[in-house]
């Protein structure tokens, strides 16, 4: 039993020669090289023993000759250092030995069938980019086959061969060739399936990442035309900005992990609300959160959507505030109007929106008050049939001057 496990461990180590543990064309080629070399080397030893067992006195020259193929056991070490040299020596060793055996045993033994496999093996090991090498091996295989079929009618005079042995050799050669080709194809199909599965999984991850970064419609447009410029004029969008009150002094006292965890918990809740109301999350900037309705595609009642989002954000923050010793409040501002949106960059793609509507919504948040939702007159006019408002009056807004604003109080009952 100990010998069995030691042999099994040795064979496993041999099959790992030249492999680095990563899925790649190189590793696949090295694996095929190791598999063929092991199979050919062991087969040579088995044939040599078989000849001696069948007729040691009459077949010992063939037994010695076939052992030449056992060189293949060393070929992975040569291939590791020089792919071309390893393939030339490996195929040359096979041609020489098989022609020698065909001269000794005659073409009726069928051993020359093994030559048919040489181009396939070299192609799998060296790869299609070694076209000169593969062509050379193909030509040498063709020459060797022509010689084997036409030059050696019967066995050599010093070899004792009978029809029963020839039948055994023909049958075993055909079966081994079939087994090797079938086994190689199965192995390559398994490797191809693994590669395709990995590629499909990576594709799904890439797709998920793309659709997380960009709106679905925009991602689809970029996939169809990767080099196109995405720039859209939007006639009516509603923009909401929210900002966590007193985040900067709070962050100054927290370790990085807690800061990230704090923001992640709040913004994850906001993401869920954005999805609930069919809004497009545009970005987060530090502790600020921005969403929009009506982009990249128009939607019905965009201002109503962001208003509902704003009210839900208030309720969510109020519920979450009990989990924070210092409490939790947000300032929210919203505005509606035309804007321009598009994709910036060609490496780290970013879908953004610009225009006076965006600037005004941002100012509504920054000039607002903790726990309240400040809106412009334009937004109020869209909402006043369904929502309650409190007048704030005229506010001097940086970059905009005097602006009349309102507090969104809630839904009309």
- Tell me the domain tally: 2
Overall mean pLDDT: 87
Low-confidence spans: none
The helix/strand order is HHHHHHHHEHHEEHEEHEHEE
* Number of extended strands: 8
Class inferred from helices and paired strands: alpha+beta
The radius of gyration is: 38 Å
First-residue to last-residue Cα separation? 85 Å
Q: What share of residues is helical?
A: 55-70%
The amount of beta strand, in percent, is: 15-25%
What's the overall geometry? rod-shaped
**How many strands, which pairing sense, and closed or not: the largest β-sheet?**
8 strands, mixed
Describe the structure.
It is found in: Membrane. This is Adenylate/guanylate cyclase domain-containing protein. Keywords: Lyase, Membrane, Nucleotide-binding, Transmembrane, Transmembrane helix. It holds the Pfam family MASE7. The radius of gyration is 38 Å and the shape is rod-shaped. It is built from 13 helices and 8 strands. It folds into 2 domains: 205 residues, no CATH class; 191 residues, Alpha-Beta Plaits (2-Layer Sandwich). With 413 residues, the protein is an alpha+beta fold. It is 58% helix and 17% strand. α2 packs across α3, α4 packs antiparallel against α5 and α5 runs antiparallel to α6. Strands 1, 2, 3, 4, 5, 6, 7 and 8 form an 8-stranded mixed sheet that branches.
């Amino acid at each position: 039993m100990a010998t069995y496990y030691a042999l099994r461990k040795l064979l496993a180590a041999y099959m790992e020669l030249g492999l680095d543990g990563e899925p790649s064309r190189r590793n696949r080629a090295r694996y095929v090289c190791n598999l063929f070399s092991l199979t050919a080397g062991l087969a040579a030893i088995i044939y040599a023993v078989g000849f001696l067992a069948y007729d040691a006195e009459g077949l010992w020259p063939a037994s010695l000759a076939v052992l030449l193929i056992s060189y293949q056991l060393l070929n992975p070490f040569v291939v590791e250092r020089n792919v071309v040299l390893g393939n030339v020596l490996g195929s040359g060793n096979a041609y020489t030995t098989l022609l020698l055996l065909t001269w000794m045993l005659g073409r009726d033994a069928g051993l020359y069938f093994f030559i048919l496999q040489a181009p396939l093996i070299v192609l799998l090991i060296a790869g299609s980019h070694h076209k000169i090498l593969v062509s050379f091996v193909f030509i040498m295989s063709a020459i060797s086959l022509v010689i084997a079929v036409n030059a050696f009618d019967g066995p050599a005079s010093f070899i004792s061969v009978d029809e029963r042995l020839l039948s055994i050799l023909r049958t075993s050669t055909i079966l081994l060739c079939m087994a090797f080709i079938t086994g190689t194809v199965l192995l390559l199909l398994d490797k191809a399936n693994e590669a395709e599965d990995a590629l499909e999984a990576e594709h799904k991850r890439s797709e998920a990442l793309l659709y997380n970064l960009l709106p679905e419609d925009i991602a689809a447009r970029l996939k169809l035309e990767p080099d196109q410029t995405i720039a859209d004029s939007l006639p009516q969008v509603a923009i909401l900005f929210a900002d966590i009150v007193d985040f900067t002094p709070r962050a100054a006292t927290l370790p990085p992990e807690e800061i990230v965890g704090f923001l992640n918990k709040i913004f994850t809740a906001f993401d869920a609300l954005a999805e609930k109301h069919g809004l497009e999350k545009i970005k987060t900037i530090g502790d600020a959160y921005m969403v929009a309705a009506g982009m990249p595609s128009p939607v019905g009642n965009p201002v109503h959507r962001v208003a509902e989002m704003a009210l839900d954000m208030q309720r969510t923050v109020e519920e979450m505030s009990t989990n924070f010793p210092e409490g939790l409040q947000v300032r929210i501002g919203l505005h509606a109007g035309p804007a321009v949106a598009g994709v910036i960059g060609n490496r780290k793609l970013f879908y953004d929106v610009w225009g006076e509507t965006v600037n005004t919504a941002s100012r509504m948040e920054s000039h607002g008050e903790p726990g309240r939702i400040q809106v412009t007159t334009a937004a109020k006019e869209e909402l006043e049939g369904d929502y309650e408002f409190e007048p704030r009056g005229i506010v001097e807004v940086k970059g905009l001057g005097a602006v009349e604003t309102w507090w969104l109080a809630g839904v009309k009952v």
